[in-house]
Amino acid sequence: MNATAQLSGPIRLHFEGLGTITLPDTRTLAFLGSVGVLAAVGLVEWPVAILFLIARLFAGKTTSPALQGIADALAITR
Asked: Model pTM greater than 0.85?
């Protein structure tokens, strides 16, 4: 297994025989993990946690400034 990580950008994991898996950047992974932990211990309800996760994932996918702002606001990234 080879892992290539940068401070900004996706993380690529290469497995012999399986191929390459691309994960989101470290900030997104940290956010996803944090929301998962908050939901697991009951500090955030699961539907709200899922809304945050979807908003965060869409925040990196859109090119529209208006949609980017809405997704950032929903994901509470700032």
From this structure: no
